[in-house]
Every structure is written in C-alpha cells, then in structure tokens.
Write the structure tokens for this entry.
Amino acid sequence: MTITIFITSLLGGMTLGMPIAFALLLCGVALMIHLGSFDTQILAQNLLEGTNNYPLMAVPFFMLAGELMNAGGLSKRIIAMAEALVGHVRGGLGYVAILAALVMASISGSAVADTAALAAVLIPLMRNAGYSVPRSAGLIAAGGIIAPIIPPSIGFVVFGVAAQISITKLFMAGIVPGVLMGAALAATWWLCARREAPAVERRRFDAAQLRRTLVDGVWALVLPVLIIGGMKFGVFTPTEAAVVAAVYSLAVGVFVYRELKLPALPALMLSAAKTSSVVMFLVACALVSAWLITIADIPTQVAELLQPFMDNKVLLMLVMMALVVAIGTALDFMPTVLILTPVLMPVVKQAGIDPIYFGVLFIMNNAIGLLTPPVGTVLNVVAGVAREELGSVVKGVWPFLAAQAALMLLFILFPSLVMVPARWFY
C-alpha cells in the first residue's frame, strides 16, 4: 500500500504537469498523511536540512567553474589541442570530439554544459567538412555523458550525499570507467568513420602545431591534475576541490588567456546560480521524500520484491539497472538519482554489493538516460545547437548509445573492471 501511494502521488503530480521538485514534495506530503504524521513544521525543517549539507556546496562551485571555463577560453584550447593531436586521421574531427569530451569532463562535471560547449564549436566544423550532422551530433552527445563519470562529477556529489558514502572514493572509482567510455566511443566511431567520414579532410600531422597548442593549452590541462591529485593525496575535499576549480578557472581566464572580462562575471555567476538553485531545490525536495521513504520502510518492501534475486549479485544488478533504464527514459538525470537512491541503497547493502561499485554503475546508467528519448536532455541540447530534428539525432546516436550500454553490461558481469582500478586511486 505504501509503495502504491508513493508511486501514485509522484506520477500523479508529474502527470498534472508539476515540476519534478514539486511532485517529490507532493509525494512526501502524501506519505506523511498516509502515516498519520502530517506536520508542516517537520516538513519545512526537513526541506531546509535537505540542502544544509557541506558536500552539496560543491555543486554551485563546479557549476561556476564550468561557466568560467567556457567564457575564459579553456574549452576552446582543449578542442584546439585535441584537433592538433588527432585531427589529421580519417574521421579526425570525431576523435577530436571524444578526446575533448574526456578532458572537459575532468574539469566541469556537467554533461549538459560540456555537450553545449563541444557542439557549439565542433558541429559547424564537422558540417563544413562533409560529415553527417546527425551522426556528428550523436557522437558529441554520447561524449558529453562521460562528464558525470569522470571526476569532478556533480552526479557523484549528489549521489554521495543521498547515499551517505564517500564522494572522494566515488570520484576515484569513476576515472577508469570514464576513460573506457571514451575508448568505447572511439572504437564505435572508427567503425562509423570507415563508411561515413569524408576523405577530403585528411591532412598531414603537424608537430609544430601540436607543440603550439600544448603550450597554449597547458593551463587547461593542469586543472584536472590539480583536482584529482589534490583529492588523492588528501590536500582538499571534493567541496574544496570545487572552490579550487572555480578560482583557478577565474584566474586563468582573466590573467593568463585574458578572454574573461571582469564586467562579464556577474552574468556568469547569475547563470551558475540559476542552474544551481534548480539542482539544490530538487535535492531538498527529494531528501524530504527520502526521509519519509525510510520512515515508511519502503526499502524493506522493495527488498522483499527483489528477494528472488538477492542470492545472485550479478542478476540483482541486472534487474536494478533495468529498472533504472526504464525510469531514466521518462525522468531526467538528477530526479532519477534522487528518487531511486534511498530506495535501492538498502537493497544494495543487504545483498552485500559494494556501494561504491553500485554508485559508479548507477550514475553511468543515469548518464546513459540523458541520451534516451523522450526526455534525453543532452540529445535535446545537441539537436538545438545543430538545428536538427530530434528524431534524426536519435538515429545518429544509437551506435554510440549501444556501445555505452554494452560497456555497462560488461561492468555488471565483471565487477573487477571497476573495482580493481578504483583501488589504485584510493
């Protein structure tokens, strides 16, 4: 009965056109009424406590770092370095997109921001070079979803807070899976490029140009090393890393590249604040529901439903990931993370599955959901930038979506692919 009320109130609110945050709040109120404990003071207190959390301060600072990085010229130089390194091979601009996506993912942690920045620069270049625009848009969208996996990841921050597990360990565990996602895209693009990439764009490798772009872009490459190294050696926490990233991006943009003008700062801060406020309010409403989910003992009921699979960790992970895939087609990244984390984490712990391992696959699965229609936020961003119909972009993305899904299946079947490399960085 409790699960029915939870699902009905949540879906009912969404069907009425409520924003996800308000639907989550309605869900919490419905559970309180069902439990006979409705109290506006307790509701308000839990709403405030939902965002009164030190690790969550990383969200606005990473958002700001992404804005400063794009405005300060770091993104442009990352793309230039990638173009000088691999732009000369057949299908080179596709490899540029993948390599640039990997580097940018290690700086901003936002799939939407990275995708928008890459698409704005690379899609016009790929269109002019004769590439299929839908296929190019699909590749850039698939590259953009690496951002929630490679640190610093906003998704890992929110999941770590909701699940109450180490954000630093999540960051470290995401490094190798994120790189493997890039490798899977490169292999898939190689197959596509053999048939689709224009031969006219090929040119000779220019070592002098690569040297110039590396010298010019070295400041952009220092940032991921600074963030990951600082957390690895305990110099700063993930929240402090977010502040370091924002300050570093500001300093480089203003004093080194001199493309970031001080009068532009208020607009950049306002943009980051608007995006952060949406995420933070969503977190606050979701944690109200999470508290009531615990009070109503919904995880125990879910565990009973999954009891036939509890003795087989691989089968249980397959079932849970299938559930996430289904929900991810209808909900955006952050709502799915916040709704399912308090429901599934007790099941994960009861089954003896490593929470860090589950967290990496859970966030990866939700990131893949950014490519699945009808919601597909990243797909919509790319379609808008490329001025293409969403349907054509969906056709362009499917080989890369299949590659990422196959990689996730490998991680489920062979957990050591995630956890063995993760322990190298702990």
